[in-house]
Records
---
Amino acid sequence: MQDQHTPPSERARVRRAADRGHYDAATIQAIVDDAWLCHVAFACPDVLCLPTACWRVGDRLYIHGSNGSRMMKHLASGAPACVAITHLDGLVMARSAFSHSMNFRSVVIHGHFTEVSDEAKPTVLAALMEHIAQGRAKDSRPPDANELKATTVLGISLHEAAAKIRNWGPKDKDEDLALPFWAGVLPLRQQQLPAISESGFEGPLPAYAQSWSVQQAHAG
Amino acid sequence: MQDQHTPPSERARVRRAADRGHYDAATIQAIVDDAWLCHVAFACPDVLCLPTACWRVGDRLYIHGSNGSRMMKHLASGAPACVAITHLDGLVMARSAFSHSMNFRSVVIHGHFTEVSDEAKPTVLAALMEHIAQGRAKDSRPPDANELKATTVLGISLHEAAAKIRNWGPKDKDEDLALPFWAGVLPLRQQQLPAISESGFEGPLPAYAQSWSVQQAHAG
């Protein structure tokens, strides 16, 4: 079990503003669970950075895509990958331009993906449905054999990962504190707006759609 | 001038769901301008994907950091890079698990960064202040000579880039349309919450802080 202050590897060590680094599973998992998408970097052979949906089961992060996808094919081969998840929580306004910053929560994961077996695929994909909305796995048509066959699901360990968090106000240099400029935070969060039903839908919304715009579980 | 439908290069061509690809500057710039951060991928030699602040001036995207930063040093050498910006606008709930999707606006940029000259640096950094909040460049202490010297500013052309947009409801297979499951969109946006002043601040908020939580210019 990784403690909060010890990086799991040299390449996972937070370099800049190292006091913002966290390496414990609880911190990493909480940031991952607040995300519906990640950015995946790999070299194929040009270095690429692509957004894709993500979700967590246990100590692994999962992504999925069509078997034909360049990214899926490349990553399924075990190629080195780096995955980043970032939540922007605010713009930090210091009195000096130089001391401006951002409040954020990020996770950077190093390693490589492995393919989820045909046997495990339905369970791991059901977890994606549940990550999207609790109860959705049973409130949708599950994938049939052809759909499962057409989908590659890849997982990467969260062991070699680092979280980085900044969640405080501006830190001006002492000599700037008396300057006559406003200092503070302009906060941001991911807002959940009321669910929009497809035209023709009648009847009550399912619980997860009803509560969507009021629960604000994410980045709240 | 790139038209909407023609990729600027083979590696910039959108592969999956190619009908969602856009290559014109107006579409790319609008997505970039809605972002305060991007993810930058590079190989150093391990492939890395790191979040960092970004802003646009003309047809270039800029990032900045300490001269000592591994990322800044590596990218300043002209190493190949790929930059991604993604706004998540909603979770798209189809009747079948397989047809679930996300509404999003993304830009992926290919190329390499070049360093901004000492002469141009103050102007490019002032543009970052203005991107954070209109009027902030003049309502903060500008960087002094030492601060400018300690900061590397890098720019990358937006020419070799692709935007990808999905902004519509679920598209179920015909045979799934009558299934008794809710279908629709769970919308998301980046919300601007009321400005938080540093303790001790008295007097009226500057205009950009007053209007922050009501203007909702971003992803609105």
---
Amino acid sequence: MMEKFVEICYYRKDVIIYEVDMLGKLEIMLENEDNRLNYNISSLFQGVLMESISAPYADNLHKTGLKPYSQYLEFENNLIKWTIHTMTEEAKNQVINPLLNNMQDVNLKQKNITLKVLEKKVSIKTYEQLLNEKYFFQGNPYLDVTFITPTAFKSQGKYVFYPDLKLIFQSLMNKFDNSSANSSIYSEEALEHLIENSDITRYRLKSTVFHMEGIVIPSFMGRITIKIRGPQAMVNLANLLFAYGEYSGVGIKSAIGMGGLRVNERSTK
Amino acid sequence: MMEKFVEICYYRKDVIIYEVDMLGKLEIMLENEDNRLNYNISSLFQGVLMESISAPYADNLHKTGLKPYSQYLEFENNLIKWTIHTMTEEAKNQVINPLLNNMQDVNLKQKNITLKVLEKKVSIKTYEQLLNEKYFFQGNPYLDVTFITPTAFKSQGKYVFYPDLKLIFQSLMNKFDNSSANSSIYSEEALEHLIENSDITRYRLKSTVFHMEGIVIPSFMGRITIKIRGPQAMVNLANLLFAYGEYSGVGIKSAIGMGGLRVNERSTK
């Protein structure tokens, strides 16, 4: 069973090397005078992003249904931090580059508001780096994860607004597999194994709502610690999935502001 | 199905009238200079209570295994509020009365600390009053509940430290039934019905631990809103159970500081 994971990842490693596929991150600091804007505007940034990318690429995204990017807003001290993550090299070139090179300020047409860009920061990481850091490494069995923005899952037609480990791991595996045609980390068996060997040992969580085009999605924010039992390969797989989750987000609507997550560094438990 | 609940409660109402059974509440305000004491001392108050009650009654509690009382501590601004609830008239006489009439200060022998009593408040309520207020009344379908002290359940040999609605309702029903020989609100069917018709719609929760005789019990504190769907009788039953839960506590170790709860008044949802 464990060998299978390793095999997949070795295989994937080779694929990545040839494809030179990569993960991208762009942070844009925006002015938010008197904290007048809040989370409710998050979904408007989907419009800003769509106007920035080329029409053919937008068409392509629409046609394939794939979303090789995620984005979310954070609000702090009269500032908005807009973070855009990409999960393929193409998405980095098509989504991050135009925002990085051309955009001087952010125009929220629906609100008739223009936000001044104060700073832009960009960073990239290859899948090979990610695997070397997280999978071919003695990962920490305690994963301390913050859900930075409203997070939710859809299961059997209903919104689930608490951190169900099955839905979390399933979502991360699917997002990992979706961003590239060549990978397949997901299997029913691997998922079952992960869930059986994982427990939430600490949490601080609250329910909240995410506003999107007039609808309100029940969701949650907060922090959990997950303990992964079992062999190191299992621990490493979980670490890899969550490290990837920092780019992909988790759960529904991660392309328009939901499901942003951060893995907090911690020494031990 | 619904008729059955009503029947039970009508029946129970008659029983109560003849037994003149009652619920009691004693609040004792204690000095906590410089906030030097915290939740970790909660279980020591079991010793204080046991020394205050008569030997024959203590023996009786031990023999029957029943715990017709609950107690917990709350800490605020150099004060400790010690709340003792009783669920039978006998327990009111045997547990609350000695603390009310004889105790001048609280002596924590293990810590060699004496806490000054600043104030005592007592109140009683008959089961009949409780039923009239909560069951024979248009109860609110939204129940806003605060878990004031660390709360946990035991299920299949493991601690459950989140508010599982099945375990909550089961615990409240069992505590209701246990405190008096003549009542039987619990049935598998009634419990199933309650769970099927209840959802947590809001929450703000954190995991914590409760210290007891050197062991550490994983638990949670915080606030939830439960929505009860279905007929008014169902809504009223849930209101009755939680109103009772203010006296009995919920989950494990409510006789030594865990599982204290409060139902918050709210106008609508």
